[in-house]
């Protein structure tokens, strides 16, 4: 997660503490601020902690995994191409691992005839490396 997101979250917790503590007391402010801090930490860690991993047998992205035998063409996307892929050009049936603070993505076509998902779109810091790992028999982690 970007540092600025953590700073904004800290400012929000302090703000909640102040607007609760002034009228209701420091114990209430601490309780509200503590709950907000815990919720934000859990939310940030879950959102930013999506694991993307490629090994000899499987491709894992977020909570899902698929056998590499069902992977088709992998295309690295950066800049406007990545933004469009997650926005106006996105198929509603696609599996998405979106991390909006990352600059690139990889679109991986699926070849499984029984899977209704046409492709996976995975945000990553290094789209070229992930696409290369998916088209070769190498192992990678993002």
TrEMBL record:
InterPro entries linked: DUF3093
Keyword Membrane: yes
Protein keywords: Membrane, Transmembrane, Transmembrane helix
Higher taxonomy: Bacteria, Bacillati, Actinomycetota, Actinomycetes, Propionibacteriales
Name by which UniProt lists this protein: DUF3093 family protein
Transmembrane parts of this sequence: 31-52
Native source organism of the sequence: Kribbella voronezhensis
